[in-house]
Design brief:
Elements: E1 2-9, E2 15-22, E3 29-34, H1 45-53, E4 56-61, H2 81-99, E5 105-110, H3 112-115, E6 128-132, H4 150-165, E7 167-169, H5 170-173, E8 178-180, H6 181-191, H7 202-209, E9 215-220, H8 228-234, E10 243-248, H9 269-281
Parallel strand pairs: 3-4, 3-5, 5-6, 6-9, 9-10
Antiparallel strand pairs: 1-2, 2-4, 7-8
């Protein structure tokens, strides 16, 4: 297995850091892995490495303003979720198509990475989509323990932090990750709207309705951020895509905890990574 660090250039001239995980032998399938909000691509390295050892090529990347694609200075820096969708993901997809032509492809989205699939240009290049802990982020669909305390984030912490620093310094304050200002405001607007991402309007709804890619949606029964109802609600945006829900209870797999991030952690390697492989490539 070989890991290579890449520089991707978007259509509007931004440079993104990406990593390609190349199997030693023949490539069975290629995976584009899209990260959760505020989560750098390095978090997925153990899982991507393991997939490559199973013959699955993987590309991970940091969108503009995230992880290794963050700027040296935040002064005047602009990056929205719309930019991630319209510029950064197409650059990553182009690299997948160029690097691994002629093999079947899976889109693997974690949380936000899975929420935006229907908005992307080029979703027809994937013959399946797998999402992990992806659902509506509207605050009423948050996990019960978060449902009301999250208002502290949206009405106090986020506005104050963004005003002071010009971005949301999540790593510094121990809440979420580091997120560009425009992306944070856009996400905040969604999380306070009953339609969540569909608050972007009818054109976006129409795009989601065009998706016919089969979806496997994994939800964690002990997710500390989003409720199972919240996960299921997102897929109402996909009326023409066959969707199968995989409900994971940690104790059923010999794990004490799973939560929003646990599927990608090495602790889940023995119990759950082979199962995830069947969703991705079986």
């Amino acid at each position: 297995m070989a890991e290579e660090t890449l520089r991707l250039v978007t259509q509007d001239g931004r440079t993104l850091v990406a990593r390609a995980y190349q199997p030693e032998g023949p490539v069975r399938r290629a995976v584009l892995l899209s990260s959760a909000m505020g989560v750098p691509q390095v978090f997925y390295r153990p899982f991507a490495t393991w997939l490559a050892q199973q013959g699955i090529a993987v590309l991970t990347f940091d969108c503009r303003g995230m992880g290794e694609s963050a700027p040296a200075s935040w002064r005047g820096y602009v990056a929205s979720i719309t930019d991630w969708v319209k510029q950064d993901h197409p650059a990553a997809l182009a690299e997948v198509l160029l690097r691994w032509p002629g093999v079947p492809r899976t889109y693997l989205g974690h949380s936000l990475g899975g929420q935006i699939f229907g908005w992307l240009d080029g979703h027809e290049h994937f013959d399946r989509m797998v999402t992990v802990a992806s659902g509506s982020g509207y605050w009423r669909y948050n996990a019960p323990q978060l449902r009301y305390s999250v208002h502290l984030l949206w009405w106090f912490l986020a506005p104050v932090a963004v005003t002071l620093f010009g971005h949301f310094p999540g790593e510094r304050i121990g809440v979420l990750g580091t997120i560009p200002k425009q992306a944070m405001w856009q996400w905040r607007r969604w999380c306070l709207h009953p339609d969540y991402i569909a608050a972007e309007g009818n054109e976006l709804r129409a795009r989601y309705a065009q998706v016919r890619t089969p979806i496997t949606a994994a939800l964690m029964e002990d997710d500390e951020l989003i409720s199972p109802e919240g996960v299921r609600r997102l897929y109402r945006l996909y009326p023409n895509a066959p969707t199968r829900f995989e409900s994971l209870q940690p104790h059923a797999h010999g794990l004490k905890r799973l939560g929003h991030f646990g599927l990608f952690k090495p602790q889940a390697a023995t119990a759950l990574w082979p199962l995830a492989l069947t969703w991705i490539a079986d």
